[in-house]
């Protein structure tokens, strides 16, 4: 649930932001883009405590929501979508505008179907990042129900004993969903890198 929700919402939010930056009539677009790139430089660990306070005050501690919302919007993935959309022909946007399509309709009906390589790339990267989260879930959760498998594996390593067999079995099980996720999107994921190399 955490993986699916994070990736699904992330694709929508980041692609919309990237599209607006690329084609929207947004004042100060260059400054906003620079700020987004600058945000990517800030390490996640430096904002963990303020984020923890905000989530706790919002009453979202020990919930799946607290593990999804903070990672839906990402400066990296917004910038990736911006780069992809900016490389598409300007005539597509102009033709949609002439036909009277709204900016939302242009994004959803024209640009999104053309962005499968970008969607696949962001899906895989965001999926791996969400699946491997450890520090944030262990801080924001208190019960086993809300904790992901990455935190559960750590319980096999105690002070008095280490259950290597259970830890290895859980690690293999943890690998399977993200492997399936990658195999499902690898075709477009690889084509995105090939396309970037050719354009470069």
Task: Return Rg in Å.
Answer: 20 Å
Largest sheet: none
What is the average per-residue confidence, as pLDDT, rounded to a whole number? 84
The total strand number stands at 0
Q: State the secondary-structure class.
A: mainly alpha
In CATH terms, the superfamily is: MetI-like
Order of helices and strands: HHHHHHHHHHH
What fold name goes in the CATH topology slot?
A: MetI-like fold
* End-to-end distance: 37 Å
Given as residue ranges, the uncertain stretches (5+ residues, pLDDT < 50) are 196-200
CATH architecture: Orthogonal Bundle
Rough outline = elongated
CATH class: Mainly Alpha
Number of helices: 11
Q: What percent of the residues sit in helical stretches (DSSP H or I)?
A: over 70%
Domain unit count: 1
Task: Describe what you observe in this structure.
The protein is mainly alpha-helical and 200 residues long. It has one domain: Orthogonal Bundle (MetI-like fold). The chain has 11 helices and no strands. It has helices at 2-23, 29-41, 48-57, 64-68, 75-87, 90-98, 103-114, 116-131, 135-140, 149-154, 164-199.
Short description:
This protein is mostly helical. The chain is 74% helix and 0% strand.
List descriptors:
single chain, 200 residues, mainly alpha, MetI-like fold, 74% helix, elongated
Question: Topology of this protein?
Answer:
Blueprint: H1 2-23, H2 29-41, H3 48-57, H4 64-68, H5 75-87, H6 90-98, H7 103-114, H8 116-131, H9 135-140, H10 149-154, H11 164-199
Helix pairs in contact: 1-5, 1-8, 2-5, 5-8, 6-7, 8-11
């Amino acid at each position: 649930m955490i993986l699916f929700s994070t990736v699904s919402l992330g694709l929508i939010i980041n692609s919309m932001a990237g599209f607006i930056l690329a084609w929207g009539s947004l004042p100060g677009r260059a400054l906003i883009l620079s700020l987004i790139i600058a945000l990517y430089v800030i390490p996640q660990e430096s904002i963990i405590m303020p984020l923890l306070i905000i989530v706790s005050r919002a009453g979202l501690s020990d919930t799946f929501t607290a593990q999804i919302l903070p990672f839906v919007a990402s400066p990296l993935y917004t910038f990736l979508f911006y780069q992809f959309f900016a490389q598409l022909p300007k005539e597509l946007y102009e033709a949609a505008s002439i036909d009277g399509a709204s900016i939302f309709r242009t994004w959803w009906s024209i640009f999104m179907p053309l962005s499968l390589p970008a969607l696949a790339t962001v899906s895989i990267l965001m999926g791996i990042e969400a699946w491997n989260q450890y520090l944030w879930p262990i801080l924001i959760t208190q019960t086993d129900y809300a904790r992901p498998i990455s935190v559960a594996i750590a319980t096999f390593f105690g002070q008095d004993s280490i259950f290597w067999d259970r830890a290895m079995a859980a690690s293999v099980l943890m690998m399977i969903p993200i492997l399936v996720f990658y195999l499902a999107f690898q075709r477009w994921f690889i084509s995105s890198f090939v396309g970037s190399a050719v354009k470069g």
